[in-house]
Structure prediction request, 858 residues.
Amino acid sequence: MSDAEIKILEKAIEEIWEKACELGLDPFPIHFEIVPATVIYEIGSYALPGRYSHWSFGKAYHKMKLMYDLGLSKLYEVVINTNPAYAFLLEGNSLIQNKMIIAHVIAHVDFFKNNVYFSKTNRRMVDEAVTHAERIREYEFKYGRKTVEEFLDAVLSIQEHINPDLFIREDHAEETERQKPSAPPPGKYDDLFALDAPKREAPAKAEEETGPRRFPPKPEKDLVGFIMKHSPVLEPWQRDIMAMIHEEMEYFVPQLQTKIMNEGWASYWHTRILRELDLTDEEFVEFATLHANVVSPRKGSLNPYYVGFKIFEDIERRWDNPTPEEIEMFGRQPGRGREKIFEVRQLENDISFIRNYLTPQLVEELDLYIFELRDEEEWVITDKTWERVRDQMVADMTNFGFPVIEVLDGDYNGNRELYLRHRYEGIELDLEYAKKTLEYVYKLWGRDVHLETVVDGETLVLHYDGEDHWED
Amino acid sequence: MLVHRHDWSLQRKGYLDQERHKERVREAIRKNLGSIVANESIILSDGKKTIRIPIRSLEEYKFRYDYRKKKHVGQGAGGSRVGEVIGREGEGMGPGRGPGAGDQPGVDYYEAEVEIDEIAKLIFEDLELPYLEEKSKQAVHSRQLRFGEVRKTGILPHLDKRRTLLENMKRMAKETGRAQIGPLRKEDLRFKSWDEEVRYESNAVVIAMMDVSGSMGEFKKYIARSFYFWMVRFLRTKYDNVKVVFITHHTEAKEVTEEQFFTQGESGGTVVSSAYRLALEIIRQRFDPKDWNIYPFHFSDGDNYYSDNDEAVRLADELIATCNLFGYGEIGEEEYAGYRRTSGALLSIFNERLKNKDRFVGVRIDRKEDVYPALKAFFGRRGEHV
Prediction:
């Protein structure tokens, strides 16, 4: 890109920025950077620049890069949620493509800054990720690349299992309770240790009288955190790596929780902003083509850009022109559409967004349906009832699509074995995968691991002892 | 507002991790060589350079839902109806096609595209040719002419016309300022000159013998075929010139083409000595052991005609005396893998009665997965050889 072109682009950014702020968007400052394809795909596949190394990122990178090389898909931009935010633009975008992308990016950053689910994210995550990467590299140096890699394989297999409810923290009560009896949970040989410290015996007895102490006291959803704190076998460096992965996952959770909204919001605003710029006819056609590419139904699956975009437009329309009933029942005033979508972008996440604003008309218009496998051979549309479609979408997004697994007992069999339970809500686990994942959990916990789930309506417990799998 | 540009040319992380991933693919292949070696898509690849093989061990395992037992929300282009079939299982429908990355735990059925040469390299890593040295010292040398030099003098038949014209043009350009062809002068002339090159070639001949008697079915032939496939490939990496002679036999042996060797129908009884006799005859006529590394291999189900056993053993000993390594593979029934004939079968007879067992390798193959261990048994390292 020539310096002259850069100048033009900088001017365009200024113009779009002004327009965006005028329309009410309120982004962090943004660091724009033009990067070659190899770099944008790298950042895209690692999700953060400077993040630690792992082959699974390399695999994702290879896949994305291949799709690009074959002309199958293209990543025009990557935005990073930090303050100031980073926006990486693909080298070779045309000016009008860049204009649309810049408007899109500004809306993303506005969303990061103002949506309440992001209010607790670390806005210096890039620095943090770089520090993590450095520490992991040091561990690789110290303990061997293969050792660290194998450990990462194990941690990454459960990385989604942290507690995603950032607002519900039983924070300090639990911490202080744990600090008081800082000893590990009762084990088989405690009586022997007790001989050394007879003084402790009294409170221990008192506890027994109040009933068996559970560990953890309540089922624990945060597998990564629990194992990190209580695994009998991990080295300090391993706990440190788990803490880093935990922290990075906490950073990504809000993004996983607001994918449809965030993309919908950005698509809504790039449309609005570009309409207000002075575009030539050719530019407008180019913009419209690109926009149509982004915001169009994909056969067989959901396009979050399209669904989110449609819902935001629909909300705005409904609050601009409320029906007489709505005026009467909810006291809705006409012309409040813009105000309403700003409120939605601040307070909702994908689940509440879909539950509150996906209407029967939208389900019809977006042609949403439920499909399932019939007779083990055909994928068939089985339902178009709008409530069921909506509920299914909500169910799919719960725990961002992952089954809920919780620690029921960290001292199972009185032997510090780990007993996990799948909170079964009608959908069975992929057992093959569950077994393989249990092997990873065993690696982290170091003692027998058990997973309770439901198959064909019956409770099934998978066991793994480091060598063999069995179930009952 | 500023647009930044940085020099990213030293950025290699994605590339490095991609390489690491590839390395893991290779490790996975190495672990699964047993099943890959007898993989139909390789053996029947007919010159294709790459094949796709599923590698399960590279999946990123997680706790996830059973995709097939779950309802999903999809989106049509408008007007979709309940009851409409939108896809068939196994036709790219299903996991992995979900919206975008990270949205759904997709199936990561990792199918690696692998070059056959790459696999060959991994397979051959542990293999080496037994008793190779002693023969290669006596390698045949071949005379070859190579035109490698250009000189200003020479005989006219060796005139290098192209270079001569070029020189002429250069000279004309210098003299007249225009690059064109002018009258030839003696100093323009260029001649090719040649060297006599003595190239040492190592030669190897594989004498592939196969029982085509009534008891050799499809499976047994496939096993033999996949074995020969790798064997010939392997020998080609070690020798410049590898010839393969195909001999089939039932009660009589005859030399056949490769095509016939692998497709010929089966019938009749088994007289193993007939094949060995023909092999010895061919060696005597065409492949002097002084110049050739000879690898006779024989696949059979071991059901030899009993009165032929003495003769078979005698001729086998004779073969062993002329060759580098004599291999015998006894192929069992796929369905009766557990059932092994211990007595009466040729393998046990060879093991008991051969004089020169040093250069004899006998293996038993019951399943496809046994092909790789068999290859290893034939070509595996055997410490210091004599």
Remarks:
- Strands of chain A lie at 30-35, 77-80, 85-90, 368-374, 378-383, 405-412, 417-422, 449-455, 458-464, 469-471.
- Chain A touches chain B through 86 residues (CB under 8 Å).
- The CA atoms of residues 431 and 462 of chain A lie 9 Å apart.
